[in-house]
Specification:
With 250 residues, this protein is α/β, with parallel strands linked by helices. Helices cover 52% and strands 13% of the residues. It is globular.
Length: 250
């Protein structure tokens, strides 16, 4: 059952009755369950679980569905326009390992993503939505740790080197890179994210571990913020993707 235009306006304005909301939530749960069952079914080969295959079009459908729900909670619309249309297509091709990411967008699927651009264009939101897709539909190939660089510094100041070990392993998205304060452990101050990125570079070289970054800083400023040893490694670790346009927060 698709929501009519009138129902959608009611949802966005918070004017649903309790019975209407219950019916809508029940329908969404049913739709989600059907999608999960579909992916669980194709997840089984010879009774051995593996990551389900999901093509780019299927991923786009999930991105659109979850994107609308994500922004609805903030009383905003998920808008696809000339500022982000190509970016969203690029992201869908990247996350589904489509050859088009390399042939059309000249990227490298083996690398992570460094997404840069002005505030409010949707850089962080896209990672929130993809993480929601991973959790809701049990698509663990899309899973990553999602953390603000400010939280990394706060945790490090409280817990010390354990935090470095924690964020060196596995796929991680670091939000707001280059805006963090200096870390301070026992009076020793440092640009901690630079050290973490250098250690993650080693993980990338040895194991192919991907890193994801969002930043409001232009690339040149990011390069000068960290030491040359770190900034030089960024080019080997990342596909650089710009997301321009005006802020979508208002």
């Amino acid at each position: 059952m698709k929501n009519s235009l009138g129902q959608k306006i009611k949802i966005q304005m918070g004017l649903e009755s309790d019975s209407e909301r219950k019916k809508r939530v029940a329908q969404e749960k049913k739709e989600n369950r059907n999608i999960i069952e579909y992916f669980d079914k194709i997840n089984m080969v010879d009774s051995k679980p593996h990551y389900p295959s999901i093509n780019t079009q299927q991923f786009k459908s999930l991105l659109w569905k979850e994107g609308k729900q994500y922004f609805r909670k903030m009383n905003r619309n998920f808008v696809v326009d000339e500022s982000n249309m190509e970016f969203l297509d690029l992201m869908c091709n990247y996350w589904t390992n489509s050859p088009l990411f390399e042939s059309k967008y000249k990227g490298e699927l083996r690398k992570g993503l460094l997404i840069y651009g002005p505030c409010g264009t949707g850089k962080s939101s896209i990672f929130d939505i993809i993480q929601n897709i991973s959790k809701k539909y049990h698509l663990m190939q899309f899973w990553f740790t999602n953390v603000s660089v400010h939280d990394v510094i706060t945790q490090y100041n409280l817990e010390g080197e354990y935090v470095v070990e924690k964020f060196v392993k596995g796929k991680v998205h670091f939000d707001d890179l280059g805006t963090e304060k200096l870390a301070n452990s026992w009076g020793v101050k440092e640009k901690l994210l630079g050290r973490i990125l250098e250690l993650r570079y080693n993980e990338f070289k040895q194991k192919g571990t991907k890193t994801f970054v969002t930043t409001n800083l232009p690339i040149k400023k990011l390069e000068t913020y960290y030491e040359a040893r770190v900034s030089d490694r960024l080019y080997e670790m990342f596909n650089f993707v710009e997301l321009g346009g005006k802020s979508r927060r208002y």
